[in-house]
Predict the 3D structure of the following.
Amino acid sequence: MRPERLVVVLGTGTGVGKTWVSAKVLARLKAGGASVAARKPVQSSAACDIETDAHLLGLATGEPAGTVCPPHRRYAVAMAPPIAAAFLGTAAPALEELLAELSWPEERVDVGVVETAGGPRSPIAADADSAALAFALHADLAVLVAHAGLGAINAVRLCAPTMPEPFVVYLNRFDKSDLHDRNRRWLQVDGFDVVVDLAELARRVGDR
């Protein structure tokens, strides 16, 4: 059953902290009494990675990693999922397949988070990128995770046209330094809805 509130998380690129942010927000919401679930429709990681995105998200929600991301959609090579699938000699899924496999708990949860892969234009299926998946979900809110430091303004501006509405920008690792604060203010002048506090992001994601 579709969550009461469905949220999709994207990043300006790989390594900006999508999974860390998603897990922290879900853990906060769960600690506050909300029922939560996380889904990673497809993932790729280095073969030596023990704790994958699915494991970390599952720890935050209390779900098995195999529920967060189906085992057959996990590719043990650090490439974009459809490229990883081809590298491993298996067929990459189509967007329609990923959407069809996206299942939620039978008892409706308050908040469900879907985490994408890479940046908005990173391939996530044979025929789609993360932005296409985000639009297909018709989520109640999208979150764009970006580094707070150098390059933040350019990265957010480039990704913004690919984002479904409504969306918020979360500046990860914001340390209140002059550079980070100037980036935040510049993006706000640009008209972006910018969040720098994890507790505030959790409130927005939970709509509380």
User: Anything to note?
Assistant: The chain has one domain: 5-42+52-69+94-206.
